[in-house]
Amino acid sequence: VVIGLVPTTVLFKTAKPFINWRAFSFSFFLMLFLSLLWEGAMGVPYGWWGYRPEQMIGLVIEPLANLPLEAAVLWFLATWENIMLYEVVKICVHGKRPLWEALFGSRR
């Protein structure tokens, strides 16, 4: 998670003007709702899969069959990293400026 989160945080200032925040919010809440519905209401309670408590940080969502918090955070980060990666790659491919300047601005 940290390996994917650090680059997107560093490049956030570059991608921020290009992100459609309404579309991001819609996809984020849809992914979060569907993942919590699938994992917390069906997957874990019916025993289709489970989580090993010794591998988790210990914070759980009790109303959703003790779903680990990491499961919900994963879906937020998946949406965040996909949007950020898409926008940064688009800037790099279609930009007219040198790569460093396109990503981080001028050095002045």
Describe the structure.
Helix content is 63%, strand content 4%. The chain contains five helices and two strands; from the N terminus they run αααββαα. It has a two-stranded antiparallel ribbon. The mean pLDDT is 84.
Count of beta strands: 2
How much is the radius of gyration in Å? 18 Å
Main structural class: mainly alpha
Count of helix runs: 5
Largest sheet: 2 strands, antiparallel
Strand residue percentage: under 5%
Overall shape: elongated
Arithmetic mean pLDDT: 84
Distance between the termini: 33 Å
Strand order of the largest sheet: 1-2
Percent of residues in helices comes to 55-70%
| SSE arrangement, N to C | HHHEEHH
Unreliable residue runs: none
How would the blueprint of this fold be written?
Blueprint (H helix, E strand, L loop, with lengths): L1 H9 L1 H4 L5 H23 L16 E2 L5 E2 H26 L4 H6 L4
